[in-house]
Amino acid sequence: MPETKDISVVIPLYNEEESIRELCEWIGRVMQMYGFNYEVIIVDDGSTDSSWQKIQALTKENPCIKGIKFKRNYGKSAALDTGFRESQGEVVITMDADLQDSPDEIPELYQMIKENGFDLVSGWKKKRFDPLSKKLPSKFFNYVTRKISGIKIHDFNCGLKAYKSYLVKSIDVYGEMHRYIPAIAKWNGFTKITEKEVQHQPRKYGVTKFGIERYIFGFLDLLSITFVSKFKKKPMHFFGTMGTFSFLLGLVITGWLIGEKVYYNWYLHQSARGVTEQPLFFLAIVALIVGVQLFLAGFLAEMISISSYKKGGYLIEDKIGLD
Description:
Elements: E1 5-13, H1 20-34, E2 38-44, H2 51-61, E3 65-69, H3 76-86, E4 89-94, H4 106-114, E5 120-124, H5 132-149, E6 161-164, H6 165-170, H7 181-187, E7 193-197, H8 213-231, H9 235-267, H10 279-307
Parallel strand pairs: 1-2, 1-4, 2-3, 5-7
Antiparallel strand pairs: 4-6, 5-6
């Protein structure tokens, strides 16, 4: 069995050849100062510069440093997920490789997890060294995420976070979901989530690897995980409700049009416009068809959910009287 560490530092990296040695040396100084038993897991997300050669050299110099290299660029979520799977620390800390996250924050983050009992501590870069064009979209993005997730933290996208080991071993991070790890954690039962104000260092080397498109994709991912987290085990509750509502709406409109026709022709003895000549009739037909399709989609999704269900696939926090 691998030796359990106090701390695992997981660093996703893409083309950061200038900063990686300086970052690892900084982490090493902090760990030595506080006497932590640690490991640094650097996940090279398909870098095209000499980052991997720098990582190889660092692993030879320091056995606490470990490296993983992807064949191609898969994204930050894949890098974090892989680092989480390989980590052996009781506390897992993530940070970016561009030196904008300070390793000096590690001891307090560790204390908040181990001694204060939090499941997750997210960094909050209250004072940012970013242009206004990046700050404003970030503030809006975080505001919307707070409202949807119900988690009262200011900076969901901060790379500097600390986690209980059990948390990172219990969740899956894919696509671009790394921005929403606090939300994923909460929806998986880890509710002790807080934030810590951290330093934001000016970028020392290179340029940012992210553009404005991350906010567009980010909102789509937020909607996706919100839907999946709420309806993954009960898709019929969503599709069935929407389908039933649509079907009943179409049924009521159709009944109204037919009733109106009967009322004018038989009771008032007046000619009335044909049911099929009214635009509402075609809207009613569309509502009926859409309702049936949504209901069938929910039924099929429910069957898929049941067939893919893994017995015992629940997170158990503790056991007593059992091996």
